[in-house]
Amino acid sequence: MNLLTSAAAAKVNMKNRIRTTALCATVCLMAVVSSAAFAQQAQRIGPLKVTAGEIVFKKNQWTLSGNRPHLFAVDGSFDVRADRIVVDFASAGKGVKISKDSIGTVTATGSVEFVSKKPGQSAQVRAPKAVYSQAEGTLVLSGGVKGTVSDPSLAEPTPITADRLTVWLDPPEDGPRLKIEGSPAEIRVTPKEQPEQDQPATKG
Amino acid sequence: MALVLVCAAAGCGTKTVLKKEPRPPRPPVDIVVKNSETVQEDTAGKPMWRISAREIRASEAATTLQVKGASVVVLGPGGQDRMRLVCPNLVANGAAKRLEASGGVSASSAENGISFKAERIEVDLPANRVTASGGVEGSNPQGRFQAGTLESDLKFEVVRLGGAGGVRATINPAAGSQGKGR
From B176, which residue of chain A is nearest by alpha-carbon distance? Predict the structure, then answer.
């Protein structure tokens, strides 16, 4: 059961503002709002299109630079813009075996803008750096993360501020989906008002 | 001969300088070979490339070949197939060890799985460089690309795509959908 569902179950019809502030601490929210907005990229990260001023192929690596490189999913589900984007093939980390032409990691640096565009569930996040790891199944944004997440269950987009944001793109059922770290880290959740449930009819 | 001797004996002593008629310039040797295969070697006798052509026109020194309808295999130091070119027009300069292919050129390297087309491709062996320009389109094992220019070494280990219009590419869907390998 996620945070929103809990709030709904408690019939919290007013706006709830949850502010989590942690000094030098880690806030880990399990199954938090809009992880699905990120999780849509879980099963597959391709096909991808890229545009850039220059692309260099070198030893199973594509380096995009110039003209504000842009990497986006062909299905329109997400896109990333940054000053520099490096796509590593066949380099998923120590001891991890993948096909030599599979995407191992994607590293975006310099004013990274990550936008998830799944209908009804979207996210817009900015950070100095973002790293997608296929082996870990995560997208890690770091260096001061700011953004918003929208979800049909939310009354309004949810602002997020953190030093580091980790998103598990294909999380195990009982595993974490989103980890927010920072000093402070902040997330504001405003669940959508739930309609009053009718009282069950009584006989007689 | 008898006439000369008579003239000399008669004392025809005035010395005449024979004016040499200017010799008409010799037409350049122009060898045209049709439907042939030619291997050009460097000064050490190592083959640089093998050209199959519809027509080869060789200059007098036979260092530069003007080729029509060419299919070229650029050879490595050990004679291995390094890259292939197919083009309508080719200038093969054996002295400079350079190839200039134009008119819509296809290039490929089996070693690195890269292939591309461009309006013009130059191969410079001494500089270890391949340059392509004009509507560069191609693919490598990871995806497909479009660019205005391409620069690479002869082994295609480092390939740089650029150009005024920027670069567009698609990362191979097959590559992207591979298993996680966890």
Answer: A46
Q: Quick check: A46 and B181 CB within 8 A? A: no
C-alpha of A2 from chain center: 16
Q: In this structure, are residues B102 and B92 in contact, taking their beta carbons and an 8 Å threshold?
A: no
The number of beta carbons lying within 10 Å of the beta carbon of residue A5 is 12
DSSP assigned state of B26: P
Average of per-residue pLDDT across A156-170: 84
Note the pLDDT tens digit of each residue in B50-97.
999 999 998 766 688 999 999 999 999 889 999 999 999 999 999 999
Q: Is A47 on the interface with B (CB under 8 A)?
A: yes
Q: What's the pLDDT score for residue A22?
A: 36
Distance from CA of A64 to the nearest CA of B (A): 9
**Cα of A39 to nearest chain B Cα, Å:** 15
DSSP 3-state of A93: coil
ipTM value, please give it.
0.80
Q: Which amino acid is at B168?
A: R
DSSP A21-33: --TTEEEEETT-T
Q: Does A143 contact B at CB distance below 8 Å?
A: no
Q: Which residue ranges in chain B fall short of pLDDT 50?
A: 1-4, 7, 173, 175-182
Q: What are phi and psi of B3, to 5 degrees?
A: -65, -40
Question: Which residue of A68, A72, A101, A133 is the best one to mutate when testing the B interface, meaning the one whose CB has the most B CBs within 10 A?
Answer: A101
User: CA of B152 to nearest chain A CA: how many angstroms apart?
Assistant: 9
Residue pLDDT, tens place only, A172-189? 777 777 788 987 888 777
